[in-house]
Design goal:
The chain is built from one helix and nine strands. It has about 140 residues and is mostly beta strands.
C-alpha cells in the first residue's frame, strides 16, 4: 500500500491547519479598546465597551508612546460606520450591519491628541468623533 505518501500529506495538512489557528503576526496589542456604535440622546456616537471607558460616549482613548494599540468597533445600530484616525492615516473597513465588527492595530509613535471619527457622510457632524490621547 501507499500509506507513507498519504500519511505525509495528512501530516502536512494538519500542520497547515494548526498554523492558521494563531493570531496573525502584528495583530497583538498592549492595550485594546472596544467601541460600539449607537444613538444617544438623538446623536450618533461611539460608546465605550468594557474597562475604564465602559458606557462613556465618544471616550478619550489614552495610550503611551510605544504601545501597540487595538481599537475595535462593533456596529450597534445597523447603519454603515467606520473608524478613522485621519492624522495617523488609519481607517477600518466599513461595518455594514448590526453586530458586524472591524479593528485597527497600530503602534502609538508620537505624543499628541488625535481625532478618531466616522467618515460616512454626515456622521462626524452628527456626533461620531472622539480623541486618541498619546502621552509619554
Amino acid at each position: 500500500m501507499k500509506t507513507k505518501p498519504i500519511l505525509a500529506i495528512l501530516l502536512l495538512l494538519c500542520g497547515l491547519a494548526l498554523a492558521g489557528c494563531g493570531e496573525q503576526a502584528g495583530d497583538e496589542a498592549d492595550l485594546a479598546f472596544s467601541l460600539r456604535t449607537g444613538i444617544v440622546e438623538g446623536r450618533m456616537a461611539y460608546i465605550g465597551v468594557g474597562g475604564a471607558i465602559d458606557g462613556q460616549i465618544n471616550p478619550d482613548l489614552t495610550v503611551q508612546t510605544g504601545q501597540r494599540v487595538r481599537i475595535a468597533i462593533v456596529n450597534g445600530d445597523g447603519a454603515s460606520h467606520d473608524l478613522a484616525l485621519p492624522d495617523l492615516g488609519r481607517q477600518t473597513p466599513p461595518v455594514m450591519g448590526k453586530e458586524t465588527a472591524a479593528a485597527l492595530t497600530f503602534t502609538a509613535s508620537e505624543t499628541g491628541v488625535y481625532s478618531y471619527l466616522c467618515t460616512v457622510a454626515g456622521h462626524r457632524q452628527a456626533g461620531m468623533e472622539g480623541r486618541l490621547v498619546v502621552t509619554q
